[in-house]
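User: My advisor, Dr. K., asked me to get a structural model of this assembly before our group meeting. I'm new to this, so sorry if the format is off. These are the inputs:
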Amino acid sequence: MKHDNKSLVKQVFDYSMKNINAWYISSFFISLLVAIPILTVFASFFEDTSNYFEILKNTFLYEYIFNSFTLLFGVLILTFIIGVGCAYLVSFYDFPGVKFFKWALILSFAVPAYIYAYSLTAFFENYGTLFSILKSLFGDGEYNKSIPKFDGMFGAVLSISFSLFGYVYVLTRASFHYQSHNLIELGQNLGFLKENLYFLLYYHQQGQLL
Amino acid sequence: MKKISIISIIFAFVSSFALAVEVNIFSARHYDSDIQLYEKFTVSTGIKVNVVSGKDKALQKRIAEEGADCVGDLYITADAGRLGAFQAKGMLQRAGWSKAIKDSVSNNFRSAQWVGIAKRARIMYYSPERVSANDLNGMTYEGLSDPKWKGRVVIRKSNNVYNQSLVASLIKNNGKNATATWAKGVVANMARDSKGNDRAQILAVAAGEADIAVANTYYHALMLSGKKGAEQQAAAKKVMPFFPNQQGRGTHMNISGAGMLKHAPNKANAVKLVEFLLTKEAQEHIVNNTFEYPMIAGVSQNTLVPGADLSFKQDLKTSVKSYGDKQADALEVMLESGWK
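Assistant: The format is fine. Below is the predicted structure of the whole assembly, which you can bring to the meeting.
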C-alpha cells in the first residue's frame, strides 16, 4: 500500500517508464516507418485539392460512400458464409478430396482480388469465355444478352470475398479443430447423443467464438 | 603501381559518363514492337536505348519525385492530353526539335516540348442492322446528345484520357457551357453506365447492347487482326466505323508522342531517336504493329485500320495542344453531367 498516496497520473507514468526499453523504442520507430504511407494519405486531406472535391461532393461523393458500405457489408456477409461453410464441411464431413480441400482452400490467399475481378469480367463479358463455351456446345447464337454480367457491385463483392474468405476459413477451421473435438468427447462422456451434441455444444461454442 | 591503378579507375569512371552514348526513355506505351524499333535504332546509330516501362501515372510520379536526379530523356506516351498536362506541371523542357522533325510533323501535332510520333482518331462504330444511313447523315460528336440516340450510346468512363481529350476539343470549339449541356445529353442517351475499355464499347454494339459506340481507330483494327481472339474478330466484323464531323471541322485526332524531360542528360540523342521514329521504316513498323496512323506521308497502309488511307477529313483546326489546356474543364464538365 506504499503507492496509495501517489496520484493516478504518476502511477501511469511510472508504469509506462518501466516498459520503455530498447524493444519498445525500436518497435515504436518501426511502426512509425510502416505507418508513413497511411499518414501521408491522411496528410493529403489538408492539401489543396483544386475544385474537384467540390464537384465530387455535388455529384458522386454520396454514391461512392454508399457503394463503399455496400461493398463492406457484402464482403463481410459473403466471406462469413464461404469461410465458415467451407471450414464446417472439411472439419465435420468426410468426402472424397476432403484432405485436398483442407489445404487447397487456403490458396485463395494467393490470388489478389483484382485477378478474380479480371477473370469474372473476362468470363462473362460480351464475346467472353462463357460465350465461347456456349458457342462450341450449341453453335452460333445470340448468347451475349442472356449471359449475366459480373462487372458491377456484385462482381466486386464476389472478387474481394473470394480473395479474403481464407482468413475466416483458416481461423474457423482452427477453432473447429482444436476446441470442438474436446467438447464433443466431453459431451459424449456425459451421455449426449452425437446428433444432439452439435446443437447443444458446438453451435453454442462457435456462436460465442464468432 | 597503386597510383596508376587508382588513376585508371577514376579515368574509366569519368570516361564512362563522357562517352555515354545512350538515351533513356520512360515509356507508357506497352508494346513489344516499340522495343524492336529501339533495337533497330541502336543498330543504325550505335546509341543504346534504355527503357523504363510503366503505367502512365506511375511514371509521371516517378519523374516528378526524382526531379533533377531523373536520368530520363524522353517521356513517351499516348494522348496529347497527357503530354500537355505533364508539360503544364513544368516537367518538360523545350526540346529544340530538328528541322527534319518539324518538316515531318505539322505544327498541329507538336509543341516546343513534345512531338507526335503516330496518329489515331476517336470515331464512332455502329450496328448496320439497327442504324440507318439516314441516321448517320451529317453525324457529329455534337449529335451524340440528340434524343434520337436515347438508350443507344456506349462510351467509356469520364476518367479516361481519350474521352477527356475529345471533350476538351469540344470545349475548345463550342465553349464550356454548350459542352456541359451536350455532356448531359450524352449521359441521358447512354445504353448503360460507362464501363470497360474501348474494345468493350465496340463489343457492346456487336452484342446488341447498344447501337453506337465511341472508340479509337486502332482498337477495331486490333480486333479485326485476330490478336484478341476469334470471337472478337467476328464481333468486330458486325460493326461499321463512322467518321464524324466530315461536313464540319473534321474527325477528332490525337497522337502518341514523345516529350523532352526537364532534366534530360542526353538531349541530342533523344532528338536523334525521335528523328528515327519519324523515318519511313519506323513509321511502317508502328502502323503494322499498333495500328495507328503514320505521322508522315508516303507510308504504306494497313488495310485493317479504319480510314487507313487517311482520305477522311481530319480535324486539323483544333490543335492537340488544347487537349491538355482544357483537360481539367473537360473532366469537370463530364463529372457534373453525371458521366461516371
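One thing worth pointing out at the meeting: Confidence is low (pLDDT under 50) at residues 13-18 of chain B.

User: Perfect, thanks a lot.
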